[in-house]
Amino acid sequence: MLSIVSTPIGNLEDITLRAKRTLTECAAIACEDTRVTGNLLKQLEMPKKELISLHGYADDARVDGVLDRLKRGEHIALVSDAGTPGISDPGYALVSRAREAGVKIEAIPGPSAFLTALSVSGLPINAFLYIGFLPLKKGRKTLLASFATEERTIVFYESVHRIEKTLHELAEALSSQPDRPVVIARELTKMHEEVGQTSVSALPEIAKSIMKKGEFVVVIGAL
Ligand code: SAM
Q1: Nearest residue CA, atom 20 of ligand 1?
Q2: Ligand 1 within 6 A of CB of 182
Q3: Which CATH class for the 113-220 domain?
Q4: Burial of 76 (0-12, 13-18, 19+ CB in 10 A)
Q5: CATH 3.40.1010.10 domain locations along the chain
Q6: What atom in ligand 1 is closest to the CA of residue 83?
Q7: 87 CB less than 6 Å from ligand 1?
Q8: How far does the centroid of ligand 1 lie from the alpha carbon of residue 9, in Å?
Q9: CA distance 94 to 194
Q10: At residue 59, does pLDDT exceed 90?
Q11: Which of 75, 126, 132, 188 is the most exposed place for a label (fewest CB within 10 A)?
């Protein structure tokens, strides 16, 4: 069986009982980074476990190795560095191939940064568009321009290195909607968590003054 296990996005207490049990009972854990997962087990005072480094992308030969073990009936857990595997993280190739092969797959749900940000945003979240990370080059301008006509709430991830540039570009792409609300969430569930609501017209100012540290989720209100 393949267990898709969500792990905390910052606050260790966000591990679920089921995630702990699964990570204890499985034969091995396939992880994005064995150091990060080894550290998580240690911090949670959980037993050591065989850790398989798995990039999880389609060209990763190690996916074959994990698949062979699953087909032999072993119980393998899949985790990423934080949050839900496969959400802007590796995992898709293994899950899709395991499903093709008829392997039993279970989800151990838990945190995800975009859901956490949406839930505290105060913006309409009955329907939303999750983008993941914006493309760096190809298609970036077109995607940002399309936000002006997207009626649903939009949520995307951004790294500390690009947040300033992205907020400027967002202000430009949505300049015809100066009052459209934007929520910027930083370091969710962590000690320095910050969630601030602003509007498109204030983004250039925010971009300059925003704390350039940590991890970000940006939410743009529905039209
Ligand atoms: N699999 C993860 C999930 O389920 O949310 C996402 C992994 S993605 C590689 C990492 C990005 O998620 C970060 O660059 C940031 O944009 C966002 N993120 C992760 N943890 C966060 C946190 N605690 N606060 C704000 N954003 C976070």
Answers
A1: 9
A2: no
A3: alpha beta
A4: buried
A5: 2-108
A6: 4
A7: yes
A8: 7
A9: 35
A10: no
A11: 126
CB 125 within 8 A of CB 119: yes
Cα–Cα distance, 223 to 220 (Å, whole number): 9
* Dihedral angle over CA of 81, 191, 108, 69, nearest 10: 20
2-108 CATH:
3.40.1010.10
Residue 57 has pLDDT above 70, yes or no: no
Instruction: Using the atom order of ligand 1, give the atom closest to the CA of residue 159.
Output: 14
d(CA 149, CA 154): 11
- Cα–chain-centroid distance for residue 158? 10
pLDDT of residue 55: 77
Which residue spans of the chain are classified as CATH 3.30.950.10?
113-220
Output the CA 132–ligand 1 centroid distance in Å: 9
Mean pLDDT over residues 128-152, rounded?
97
pLDDT (tens digit per residue) in 166-186: 999 999 999 999 999 999 999
- Nearest atom, ligand 1, residue 6 CA: 4
The model carries a pTM of 0.96
State the pLDDT at residue 91. Answer: 92
